[in-house]
Design brief:
The complex is a heterodimer. Chain A is an all-alpha fold. Chain A contains 20 helices and 2 strands. Chain A has a two-stranded antiparallel ribbon. Chain B is mostly helical. Chain B is built from 14 helices and no strands. Chain B is flat and about 95 Å long. The chains are: A mainly alpha, B mainly alpha. At the A-B interface, helix 9, helix 10, helix 12, helix 14 and helix 15 of A face helix 4, helix 6, helix 7, helix 8 and helix 9 of B.
Chain lengths: ~500, ~375
Amino acid sequence: MTRRPRSLSTRLAAAWTALRFRLPKDRAAALAADWGLLILLSYCTYYLINHWYRALNNVSPVYRVPFPNYAYVVAAAATLFLAVFWENLGTSIGWKSIGLDHADRASRPLRFLPRAAHFVLDLASWSLTALGAALALAPLAGLGTLLYGVISGSGLMVVPSVMLGPLGPWYVTLGWTIVLGLALVAMGYVSWWAARALLSWLWPGRRGATPWADRAVRSQVCKAADVVRSGPPRPWWRTSWGLMTLLLVGVGVYVGWLTAQVNLATLIRRASSTGDYWQKLVTPDFKYFLVPEPDLHDTMLNGIIQTIFMALLATLLGFVFALPLSFLGARNMVTKNRLGWGVYTVTRAFFNIGRSIEPFVMAVLFATTLGYGPFAGCLALLVHTVAALGKLYSEQIEAIDPGPVEAITACGGGRTQILRYGVVPQVVPPFLAFTLYRWDINVRMATIIGMVGGGGIGRFFNYFKNELRWHEVGAVIVIIAIVVWIMDYISGRVRERIT
Amino acid sequence: MAKNLAARQFQKTVRRVTALAKRGATRSAIFLVDATFLAYFFVMTSYVVSRVVSGVGAYLPIRGEYVILGAIVAAIAWGFLGTSVGEKVILFLSGASRRKPATDLEGSAAQRRRWYRTLWGLSVVLAAIVTLAAATLITQVDFSRLVDSLSDTWKMIRRLVRPDAAIFGEVVMLTIVTVFMALMATLLAIPVAVVLSFLAARNLARGPVGKTAYVIVRAAASIVRSIEPMVWAIVFVIWVRMGPFAGTLALFVCSIADLTKLYSEQLESIDPGPAEAIEAVGGRRLQVLLYSIVPQIINPYLSFTLYRWDINVRMGTVIGMVGGGGIGMLLMQYVRVLAWEQVGMCLVAIIAVVWSIDTLSARLRARLS
């Protein structure tokens, strides 16, 4: 019996699959959490050192105790060190929250020496993991820089001109960029292989395989509840995670109190000195509700109508744009191949970035370039709405029951038929509910967007506030509250019926 | 026997009157919706027409009283003409449209008219078209302005995506201030909201005092919630002057109102079984609270609080733009002088902090529920 000679590609493919790895996501998340908490603690310490130094020595209130620049790097490294230490020699908050614990092969708690050894190995394995990630991601970062150079257009391509100086006419630069890009792709493959080799050694991907550090000290990671302990468990205030939580909350509240400049004395003292202002604010003057304001040439009624229609238009257009985008951002719709993954990632990134910037900020940007007015406010709301609705929609599409889709596929239905009869009927009611909800939020947002040049009732608010006409400001606030309350009520009732 | 009969007769009459009154309420609700719809349609049409014809939009070409009168008459007439919009809306809201009629008196479904060939369907379509036209006119949609400012916008975006790293330290410090502002507002709001939520839960409000407290707290919470944190921030800026304290107070007030609503809704949906069981074995009020109510609400409460913290961070990033301290203040300073590279740096910080706290809070909430 002779073995069939294998081709190079088969061998490569076999080697590739042998280098499988499985990163323990929960352990990584726990480490990130612990590290983050320790960084928070060290920031609080830094803040308090500055605070107390200023309090004890007669220096300016913005004085900062000088630390050398490398102190930040040292602090980052030390907190990582401490986090790993904490995870191995005690029960950290991160490990407590993922519900895992170290144990030996017989599920008894680890003794001190193996624990200490495991700490050293754990430190090494996480550092090597970071190295692996850097190896895998470095070429991507290079490509990103290249693309960024192209997009931001600072000189046609940023990388060649920085690395090699001016290269002559544009086609030479373009050529070099292509060459560099190809080189980066080649490098990417090589370093991706290296990263896989390293990671598959540290975190083997075979079923039931133990990570390197656990293998070396013959320990295992199991559920905290499954560890066989002698004696009753410690009360939570005698565990390291409990004490640390107390410390963090205490220090956090203290530093928060100082950072937010909470000052109850001012609050009480100025409550009486601003009495006139309160008195004016609670006696609203609705004179300009129907009569045009002489300086703004408009009535408040027109302002609030403008606000509602801004929100309406932004919601409708947002619906129109978000609908197709949400299918591109749904994992079960597009991620059949590499291209699909790319589309998915880009769409999701747009959703997340768009959602992160409040419409208020966007309104500032649009008002500056487009000029003040409701159109700028409407566009600002639109961008935010597309992102927010897109995310909600695509999550809904991801949560559909795959049964009908499979049934239509099995009967030989085409793509359009799958969409029309398998997906759409399942998502229409939630989509309508989300859209109504969004309209509600948009009205809320639209009331204030005028404060930065977005038109609507907010324009009146800003104007009266700047003129210190508090009676009118009170009226605007009452109008806003009534309209928002009505919208909230209606949308709540209708949503109740739909879902 | 006779008395019994009279009593039965009386009950029958009461039932009939109640049914009549109910039908009357439904009919008048339908009439109100119809009249509002017609008046709205008229007002918007006249706005669009006058705006297109003369350039100045007028909602009321005739006296308002006539419009109201006309709408009333037309709504009454519509009630006789067939299915009106109001009927559809009220049926939908009362849930009656869900139930399909057992026997279709007008014939099979195939023979009924399609919705777009009915009077109400047509009027809804017309109203939608008029609304869209009015919305475009009112919000001053102007594509030529969009095209004209394209080069300006492109220049701004190109400067925005090249953030200025020189102000990185300052930005990080102010972002931390923002996060702490949100943290303080949320933490301080928890105890207040927990106490208020017990007053604002319908099932726990007993006696005249309890009922009054329920109504007052609920009303106050819903009024406060209707006013945006930005407006509160301005109120507090005048009270305690500019700075993070004003922003914290604004977020604090809104968090109290929002958390009270969320908490009390959770309290209203608890299972009364355990509380009754503890009362039955002679438990006191405190014991009922500790052993039956608290275990049921602790996880939802935590999850709502995390959600609110997330919103507070989001709001905290912009609250500084009206003087509430934190990263927004810096952003507004740079916007005023059109320093887009610096604005870009602020935006990067905002995106990073909002994104990460959003993800973190979503993950933790998924674990809690």
